[in-house]
């Protein structure tokens, strides 16, 4: 179930079930003075310079950026993810789809270290993540957004992004307390970078607004900006368009393409088939925790098992997967 974020209710059942608290991903940046900044940063070249300064787009050749090998996650007797193997190639947008309860979010949680797999391995950038903790996984370059929006609701949009940037800061705690020149420089850089990211996702004019006062769509964009602030190699988006109208979905698709074109690799969970087909390079389909297909979008659209999984009918191949496959509980 996806709920609209607002006020303090920016966390959802999925997080509560996982016993995840909101502030374990990011550490507070301390006091960030954003009162003096001009919330409009309009030079597109300056934005590009900050968002993707030296990134090479390394498409689909060589070793996969991420690979899961027989990845399984169990909750008591329930096998939520059942020996799933797939890879995400550098520079691609990989769609991860499947009906409600198929194991998509569980797969994200296993990749990002929220859940410990009961068996199997995740390899990222050539190394296994078996013993790697969540914060270390973020530092290695995997960032994510959540199916239920999670933001620091009382912080401004800019502060929410700056806490993401902070994962990269070098200043020691004494440096921050005594506001050394290095700390001030880092703070200024973080603010500039935060503004550039807000501009990149299209919400710079709202920079000094509290997260809780942003529209639902802008909160979703802010989550993406905050994830990008950790300078990830892989950005995992869990239903970023949930609750959007068609125009908002189309704008979000453009943003996801722009993110990929800037050299990030993207793993996208999304129910809306039109969105998934339109934006992804490849698609992995889960059903009851198992991978049932892994192919190009055009082939997925006509795959009888996928059609059957979505329509809940025997796979006679008579139909095609179209439109929004979200059922009432998504
Ligand atoms: N923390 C948990 N404890 C127990 N069961 C869980 C937990 N998280 C997920 N599950 C169960 O694991 C299965 C897969 O859930 P998951 O959230 O990964 O599905 P999903 O594909 O993301 O579905 P949706 O499209 O509804 O978001 C479901 O049966 C779900 O109830
Ligand atoms: Mg989910």
UniProtKB/TrEMBL annotation:
Record GO biological process: D-alanine transmembrane transport; L-alanine transport; L-isoleucine import across plasma membrane; L-valine import across plasma membrane
Keywords for the protein's UniProt record, in alphabetical order: ATP-binding, Nucleotide-binding, Transport
GO cellular component terms listed in the entry, alphabetical order: plasma membrane
Domain annotation ABC transporter: ranges: 66-313
A GO molecular-function annotation: L-valine transmembrane transporter activity
Superkingdom to which the source organism belongs: Bacteria
Pfam families the UniProt entry points to: ABC_tran, BCA_ABC_TP_C
Presence of the UniProt keyword Nucleotide-binding in the record: yes
InterPro entries per the UniProt record, alphabetical: AAA+_ATPase (IPR003593), ABC_AA/LPS_Transport (IPR051120), ABC_transporter-like_ATP-bd (IPR003439), ABC_transporter-like_CS (IPR017871), BCA_ABC_TP_C (IPR032823), P-loop_NTPase (IPR027417)
Keyword GTP-binding: no
PANTHER family: AMINO ACID ABC TRANSPORTER ATP-BINDING PROTEIN, CONSERVED COMPONENT OF ABC TRANSPORTER FOR NATURAL AMINO ACIDS-RELATED
Name of the molecule in the record: ABC transporter ATP-binding protein
Lineage, uppermost ranks: Bacteria, Bacillati, Actinomycetota, Actinomycetes, Mycobacteriales
